[in-house]
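Can't paste images in this forum, so I'm doing it all in text. The chain is below; anyone willing to post the predicted structure tokens underneath?
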Amino acid sequence: MDNKQPSQYRYNKQRWGILRYFFLMVIRLYKKILSPTFGSQCRFYPTCSSYAHLVFTYYPMWRAIPAATLRIFRCNPYHEGGNDFPPGISKEEAKRHLNEIS
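Text version of the structure:
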């Protein structure tokens, strides 16, 4: 039996707009400029910025903004962290995308 679950959300270039490109550009700039100065502070895998990149790539905007915001709010000293992949995206697809953007 195949344990892989297909992703509910697919990469769809047709949905891309200026706002999505803006958010992805801000995330990339953060990962290149600010993240190295802070060091590895995130309690989760994938990191909060990688999680945000995933949700803005695969989710519709109305779902990506709250998902990324809630993840950033959960990244605090009172939360234990751990593996936390976006729902609806298979772990294999998420890991492949993370390898492509890093």
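The helical segments are 18-38, 48-58, 61-74, 91-101. Strands lie at 44-45, 82-83.
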